[in-house]
Structures are given as structure tokens and as C-alpha cells.
Amino acid sequence: MDKESFLPDEADCAETWRQPRWPEEGPECPDCGSTEIQTRQKNRRNCFHRYCCRSCGRWFTDTTDTFLEASGARLSRWVYLIREMDKKCSINDIAKDLDLMYKTVLGMSRKVKEAIYDRREEWLDALTGKVEADDVHVKGG
To answer: How far apart are CA 81 and CA 78, in angstroms?
Structure first.
């Protein structure tokens, strides 16, 4: 068993990334908003597609205008990081698992949190309504 065998498959991660990114009509140009897009090639290293807009001629990828755009880390590492953050694992433990420096993983986790915070307005309608909470007993003294 090799060192990174616990990470998810890169192609599956890229496909999972594409589904919510380009929901119904497929890719959309981040510059002009056109859906007249031609898929040019697939990047063998990280399984992301490269697209060309037929309207404005701009080239873009699945990660354009996202927190992954300038990242050197593979998508499988990002997926692992998000999954472990959801399980409330410490950044230090995640850094050890991924064999990365603590500061690198801390920066990655901050980017994820900022991306979630930036899209909070889209989820605001879904987060309204009744909220149920358990009892809390506070002892003083």
C-alpha cells in the first residue's frame, strides 16, 4: 500500500467538482456568461477540463474563479481536507495525514472557509424557519 492510497480517486473528484459547478446547461463562460462552450482538452495531471468560449474566445477550466484556481495541491487532497474538517479533525492531524506542513493545510482550510462564507447569501433562504435546540444545563459555582 502506497503513501497516498487513502486519498480518493482524482478523476472521481474532478467529476464530483464539475456536477455542481456546471449544473444543467453545462459549462458557462465566467467572462461573458455564454453557454456556447467547446471542451478542448482534459488535463491529464488533475482531470480537469479546459474550455473555450465561442462568444468571447476566453479559455477557462473547471477551477476558474474558484478557490482552487491557483492551487498547486491536487483535488483529492482538497476533498480529503474538507471531509476531515467536516469530521472535526484537527489541522495538525490532517497535515500529518497529507504529509504537508501545518501552515499549508491551515491556509487551505482558510480558503475553504472563506469560499463557504462568500456563498452564504445563496443558502440564506434554505437556512430560515424553525430551529430545534436541546436543553442546556449550566452549573454555577
So the answer is: 5
| CA of residue 67 relative to chain centroid, distance | 7
Burial of 51: CB neighbours in 10 Å, binned 0-12, 13-18, 19+:
buried
Could you state, in order of their start, the residue ranges of all structural domains in the chain? Answer: 8-62, 67-119
pLDDT digits (tens, 9 = 90+) for 9-57: 777 888 877 887 777 778 888 888 888 888 876 665 567 888 888 888 8
Size (the chain), residues: 141
- What is the chain's Cα-based Rg? 19
Whole-model pTM: value is 0.69
Q: DSSP of 33-102, one letter per residue?
A: ----EEEEEE-TTT--EEEEETTT--EEETTTTSTTTT--S-HHHHHHHHHHHHTT--HHHHHHHHT--H
Please, are residues 82 and 94 in contact by the beta-carbon 8 Å criterion?
no
